Amino acid sequence: METLSTIASLRALLRPHRAAGRTLGFVPTMGALHEGHLSLMRRAKAECDLAVASIFVNPTQFAPTEDLARYPRDLEGDRRLCRSVGVDALFAPTAAEMYREGAATWVTQDDATARCLEGEHRPTHFRGVLTVCLKLFQIVQPDRAYFGQKDFQQALLVRRMVRDLDLPMELVVCPIVREADGLAMSSRNRYLGADARRQAVSLWRGLDKARAAVAVGERDAGRLADVIRSEIVAAGPCEIDYVAIADPETLAPVAVVERPVVALIAVRIAGTRLIDNLLLAP
What CATH code is carried by the domain that includes residue 236? Predict the structure, then answer.
């Protein structure tokens, strides 16, 4: 596996493979890798001739009050993990490499789907996410890019960007990978102390109880949201940004569950912001 830090060196490495008609799978990450990331890399390797991953803690998707400075970083450990699952090339650029001085071009989506949920609580977040994703897609030029379902709204918006800008690639969204007790794997789980880690499982318990309620006939979205919220609040002190039952294509609120919906939550526990979601089918 080669590790490259410049756009020019990555393009030079990939050029002959692309010219030979080899397919390229791409997994963009911010590092602090866990089994969720590795599952994406394994799938890219299984479905494409080459697997490329990136590690870049993207400063433009963090607000000034967020955790950019303390976001977990372990490039050497991440390199070992990438190598262990067969990644062929790892792109690990600096911020200066990705954003030239005076850069003034951004990708935005300004509609209800982008403004709700994460867009409401982190209003500058998706501008940074979409911009860096487009830049990475332009640099790597993958046939397929692999994203996790945990960042449900992000994957939805990136898929729309790929469609709207006619990018010649496929976006593959893969299932959430969970710990044995149900907690969705996340790099930010590293922030959790023992008590907060135990409390964090309440997100999954709430989602699972909502699924069970749907299975026995509950169709009122408000009551389903209350089931989730009650489970989280009962587990201990927290700050809930949102609990939503929404259309999985538009994220518009749903009042009655008559077709598949997605339950989405964002909660702060002991200062750590966690997100999770689950598709619910009547």
Answer: 3.30.1300.10
